[in-house]
Each structure stands twice: as C-alpha cells, then as structure tokens.
Write a structure and sequence with these properties.
Length: 225
C-alpha cells in the first residue's frame, strides 16, 4: 500500500515540484532567507525554523490583502513513513505527512501583519522527491487532506482543491536511500508556493445548479420521446 502510494506519488511529485495543480491557482509563495535550513533526521522526522520572505499572489478568486513582501518566520514539523522510499528513474521518493506549518509575520513595523498568521496548515499525505542536490515536497487535496488557515483569508476562501509545492535546493548530502529504505538525512534551503480553488460565489452556485436541473429535464424529455 505504502509502496504503491510512493510510486503513484512519483508522477505527482515530478509534475508539481516548482508548479501547482492545473485546477488550482497560486495564492501565496515564500522564498528562503535563512540562516537555519530544512533538516531531515535519521529517525525520518523533518523540521525547519527559519526566516522567509512571504507574498500573497494575486489571482482571480481567492481574496488576498495585498501583494507586498512580508518578512516572516517559517516553522515546519513533519515526518516520512519509515521504510517506504523508492527510486524511480533516479529520483528518490518517500511518503509522509506534515503535522503543521506556520508562517508568522516577524517585522514589528509591518502592521497589521506582525505576529499574525499569514498562512498555516497541515497535510495527511505528502511526497518528498528529489535527485542529486534538488527536490521538493508536494501534496494535494484531493485525494488527501490539506488544511489551510490564515488571519487574512477567510476559512471558506480556500475551497476544496488545495495543494502546495515546496522546493528543496542545495541539498547536502545529495539525495540517497539507506539500506533501511529511507531517504538519507540532509539539510537544504526551502521555498514554495500554495494553491487553492475556492468555493464559487453563491450566484455561480445557483447558475450551476440551474444548469444541472435544466440538463436533467432535457435528458428526461429525450428518454420519454
């Protein structure tokens, strides 16, 4: 089950590292400032507590407060599923989960963002994939659960289609798999994007429902004839 999940995730990971789902639009991104780096340990837990530059990204549906750059503290806590790593065409792939990530404004002069939750969340299923000195961590909903929260975007503003793609660069040592079937420990710089496909406006929902009812009536009329 875990092996098939890793292999299935290979296509997802290779397609999403540096990108997002086609049916969701990017609404936020962050870039690495440092100095602390993302770290995967031998017990398969990973974490980072570092400084990033965070931006909301303008897109047509998710309402964002601005598109300015905000200095923020990034914290990530997660783990990989032990013994599930595989190598596909030279890319090392392993499944896992992110218990929590938080991006919190840290510039006292950046009002109202200082001390606020710019973006946070979690995922029940992530895929870490990489080769040589670069890779990434990806997740999507569906099929798995991805949660987002923010003090500046309403809880319902993220809709059902959600994903993130985090890039890992300057990976040291380079990606490898141990004899126990785990991606070997490393450190790396991290950056990433977040995407969502929000719930349609009430008027749009009504229009879609109306179209569905109309379609059903047409189908029923054809069946009777």
């Amino acid at each position: 089950m875990k092996l098939s999940r890793c292999i299935a995730g290979a296509v997802l990971a290779l397609g999403l590292v540096g990108g997002t789902r086609a049916d969701a639009a990017t609404f936020a991104s962050f870039s690495f400032v440092g100095p602390s780096k993302f770290t995967l340990l031998g017990d398969q837990t990973f974490s980072v507590s570092t400084v990033v530059n965070f931006n909301y990204v303008a897109q047509g549906d998710v309402t964002i407060p601005d598109t300015l750059t905000h200095s923020a503290d990034l914290v990530i806590i997660g783990s990989l599923d032990p013994g599930t790593a595989v190598s596909v065409l030279g890319t090392k792939i392993q499944s896992g989960s992110v218990a929590a990530f938080t991006i919190t404004g840290n510039d006292a002069g950046d009002i109202p963002y200082f001390g606020m939750n710019l973006l946070s969340g979690s995922s029940s299923a992530i895929v870490m994939a990489g080769s040589a000195a670069s890779g990434g961590i990806t997740t999507t909903q569906p099929p798995d659960s991805v949660a987002f929260a923010s003090d500046f975007i309403s809880a319902g503003g993220f809709g059902f289609e959600r994903s993130w793609s985090w890039s890992l660069t300057d990976v040291s040592p380079v990606f490898g798999i141990s004899g126990a079937g785990n991606i070997k420990p490393f450190t790396a710089s991290i950056s990433g994007v977040f995407a969502a496909s929000p719930v349609p406006e009430p008027g749009t929902v009504a229009m879609l429902v109306g179209m569905g009812v109309a379609g059903s009536l047409v189908a029923l009329r054809r069946k009777r004839n």
